[in-house]
Amino acid sequence: MAYTSSSSSSSLHLLPNTKLSSSSSSSRPPSFLPIAKINGVNGHSKKSKSPNGKPHINGDGAKKGPVNGKSKAATRQVNGKNNDRIHLSVSTGGGVGQDGSGLRVAFQGAPGAYSEFAAKTALPGCETVPCRAFADALSAVAGGGVDRAILPVESTMEGTALRNYDLLLRHDLVVVQEINLFVHYCLLAMPGVRAAEVRRVISHPMALAHCGRALARLGVDREPVEDTAGAVEMLRSNRLLDTAAIASPRAADLYGLDVLAHGLQDESWNVTRFLLLSKPPATTTTTPAMPVDADAKTSMVVAHRGGSMMVVLKVLSAFSSRNINLTKLEVINNDGGGNGGAGAATAGTPVMILDTSARGAPTLRAFPHVLYVDCEGASHDPRVLDAIKEIEKFAVFVRVLGCYAADSNVYDLQ
Ligand SMILES: O=C(O)C(=O)C[C@]1(C(=O)O)C=C[C@@H](O)C=C1
């Protein structure tokens, strides 16, 4: 569901300092941080109602035990570098702590989903709010029911999650933080079930796709469900003894299941990038939230008339002539010319972008040709502002999606 790719989309995305190779067992970014201090992801001691009526987890107090006799060395740091993280995201004031305490963050899935871990990594003190679908999570933050939503936007194995970009662009939301999570898949089963007894594996479609070769070797049926933790929940509540789920080792802990296999993903290097989204700050001042010299990133969408390659060259020139590095460039052409459909639900359907720049109510506009661009630098950095001004001369429309602290770390759940 979330990740799509087609001939109408081509991308250049680099996790900074991250080497990606097809036989990537040796590829590691310079800093690979475990989620050591996450509270709340190991249990659900406090339950309350989420916007969709499901209970949500809030705080720790969990059963913290070894997985299959293996101690979870949760604080192990792989690359020996101790990068203390600085949160530079938009401040909401009013009782919100630096660690996100006081903030409610919507995520898609059941407690224990990777998205929840990403939220807890970004804002360790936050309260996470499960939602049935990504669209519900985004509506919750846009409608003010929660303070933030977390959205996976790309993975090293699948590229850009175009459908999630579609969702993001339809809302008046801004990116306030990025987080890269190492996705380590495990095969989980009810206590006592042996691998040979498993006939069927259920999980999020992305997890099933990422583990395709391993599942083929196991010779089991595959069934997609809403999310990885939802699969585990289903296994547990229906006491399924012929079925296994693909999910994280933390989900095994949370639901008290056995881990039959670790590292099921076909590529050993499997990182998903998540964005933390917020409503735009309701401020009348133009004071930037982040110093110009901070290690910042700016994300934007550029709509244009077509002729992608020439437009790409002009965009590259606008940034390179100012010595600005790009960290992502995705080219989408949904012009109905037989190569459409990448980001949209139907082939040839243009990308719908909420135009928040015009006076009056924001309007949804349709664009067949768009670029998703992330650059280094703050959106109010004069060089970035100049580059955007230059792009606006030949583009139809530019929307800055957010300016946030660049974080090239990759966080690990193990
Ligand atoms: O199902 C989950 O646990 C999720 O958080 C969703 C999701 C995704 O949509 O890509 C997140 C990361 C993993 O790649 C697999 C699934």
Automatic annotation (TrEMBL):
InterPro entries: Preph_deHydtase, Preph_deHydtase_CS. Residues 1-85 are annotated as: Disordered. Pathway: Amino-acid biosynthesis. Keywords: Amino-acid biosynthesis, Aromatic amino acid biosynthesis, Lyase, Phenylalanine biosynthesis. GO terms for biological process: L-phenylalanine biosynthetic process. Residues 104-279 form the Prephenate dehydratase domain. One of its GO terms (cellular component) is chloroplast. GO terms for molecular function: arogenate dehydratase activity; prephenate dehydratase activity. Residues 1-11 have a biased composition (Low complexity). SUPFAM superfamilies: Periplasmic binding protein-like II. CDD domains: ACT_CM-PDT, PBP2_Ct-PDT_like. This is Prephenate dehydratase domain-containing protein. The lineage of its organism: Eukaryota, Viridiplantae, Streptophyta, Embryophyta, Tracheophyta.
